[in-house]
């Protein structure tokens, strides 16, 4: 089947570098439930989607590398010596960050050129950055036979995010993007990095993403702060991560914490339990129970963890009062991006029309809708 994204990226590479590249597709991800639990060694329930980043890569005939962001029509030439993070480097940091993290493993990366582009919006909470990182490490590994396993590659991507993009993220996004399976979501234990795939069939319902079109650009510091709170509370509890705590454990040290930190830690413990319960609900085909867990997750993200925003809350409040939507919540790191909704298939069109109208009235801007298919993880493609 023809894929215009991959064809465009391939053509752009050939036009610029007069060589045939290898082609990689690396998907974005959704997350059914289990938000901000990954860096607490907890459980998440993500899936790779059929939208993501396509990259064309080939070795360079010079000593320098050129990376070209097709969608932005922006290029960056760099040398492989002494790579350091760039101030306000944007997409460049993901590319050079991956290279530097491979080098830190004592592996030599020969010079290469890359053209990449995507069909997931940046800043929508669909992990375009993890998709880009994975496309680079996967492409380089294939091209130069670096001998990295997929498990090693996602750690390279995660370290690039930490050290070059400045976000101390967990492993969910890189894992889902690399290991996704068609039609499945993965119950991932972020401590052991073992995943159980679940075939997703929501019968009369389907997942609909609604993008607030609020970009979560400036959220790095807020994200890292929350991770710091979780680590501090874990120290008080003398445990490795909040995954090991119960609500009763937390209550015992409540007097040592601010109310705000207590609520944040409580959210993580409760969300971790919700992720496990969601899988039970799905196995038992109890979709309304699953939906209720999504609403509860949003409540926690909004009122305890404080990572939502008015636009996301507005969409979830609408969903709560709509008979055709049985569950909804904000998805990803927060501060903008998408909500994930369980919508009755027969009412999909009406629901979208209503949301478009009321969202525009409330915020004087448009929201966007994505009907995504669950798909395989990062892979080579041929055209
Ligand atoms: C972002 C991070 F990159 C993930 O690791 C995860 O923590 C998520 O926010 C929240 O669940 O996408």
Automatic annotation (TrEMBL):
The keyword Zinc does not apply. Residues 93-181 form the GHMP kinase N-terminal domain. InterPro entries: Galactokinase, Galactokinase_CS, GalKase_N, GHMP_kinase_C_dom, GHMP_kinase_C_sf, GHMP_kinase_N_dom, GHMP_knse_ATP-bd_CS, Mevalonate/galactokinase. Pfam families: GalKase_gal_bdg (PF10509), GHMP_kinases_C (PF08544), GHMP_kinases_N (PF00288). GO terms for molecular function: galactokinase activity. Keywords: ATP-binding, Carbohydrate metabolism, Galactose metabolism, Kinase, Nucleotide-binding, Transferase. Its EC number is 2.7.1.6. Residues 279-359 form the GHMP kinase C-terminal domain. Residues 11-59 form the Galactokinase N-terminal domain. It is an enzyme of class 2 (transferase). Signal peptide: none annotated. Belongs to the GHMP kinase family. GalK subfamily. This is Galactokinase. The gene is galK.
């Amino acid at each position: 089947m023809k894929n215009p994204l991959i064809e465009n990226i391939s053509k752009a590479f050939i036009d610029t570098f007069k060589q045939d590249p290898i082609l990689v597709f690396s998907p974005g991800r959704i997350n059914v439930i289990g938000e901000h639990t990954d860096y607490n060694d907890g459980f998440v329930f993500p899936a790779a989607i059929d939208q993501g980043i396509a990259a064309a890569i080939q070795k360079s005939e010079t000593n320098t590398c050129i990376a070209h962001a097709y969608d932005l029509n922006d290029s960056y030439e760099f040398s492989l010596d002494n790579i350091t993070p760039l101030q306000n480097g944007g997409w460049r940091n993901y590319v050079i960050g991956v290279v530097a993290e491979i080098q830190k493993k004592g592996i030599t990366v020969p010079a290469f050129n890359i053209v990449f582009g995507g069909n997931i919006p940046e800043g929508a909470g669909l992990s375009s950055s993890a998709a880009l990182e994975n496309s680079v490490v996967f492409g380089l590994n294939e091209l130069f036979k670096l001998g990295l396993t997929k498990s090693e590659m996602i750690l390279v991507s995660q370290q690039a995010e930490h050290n070059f993009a400045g976000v101390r993220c967990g492993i969910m996004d890189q894992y889902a993007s690399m290991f996704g399976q068609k039609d499945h979501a993965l119950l991932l234990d972020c401590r052991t990095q073992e995943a159980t795939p679940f075939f997703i069939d929501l019968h009369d319902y389907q997942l609909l993403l609604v993008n607030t079109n609020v970009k979560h650009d400036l959220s790095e510091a807020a994200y890292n702060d929350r991770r710091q709170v979780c680590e501090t509370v874990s120290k008080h509890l003398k445990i490795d991560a909040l995954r090991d705590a119960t609500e009763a454990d937390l209550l015992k040290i409540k007097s040592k914490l601010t109310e705000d930190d207590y609520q944040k830690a409580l959210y993580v413990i409760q969300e971790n339990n919700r992720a496990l319960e969601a899988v039970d609900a799905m196995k038992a085909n109890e979709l309304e129970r699953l939906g209720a867990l999504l609403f509860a997750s949003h409540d926690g993200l909004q009122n305890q963890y404080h990572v939502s925003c008015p636009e996301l809350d507005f969409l979830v409040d609408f969903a709560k009062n709509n008979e055709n939507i049985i569950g909804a919540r904000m998805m990803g790191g927060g501060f903008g991006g998408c909500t994930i909704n369980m919508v009755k298939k027969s009412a999909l069109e009406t629901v979208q029309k209503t949301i478009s109208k009321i969202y525009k009235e409330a915020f004087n801007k448009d929201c966007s809708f994505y009907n995504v298919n669950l798909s395989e993880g990062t892979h080579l493609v041929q055209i």
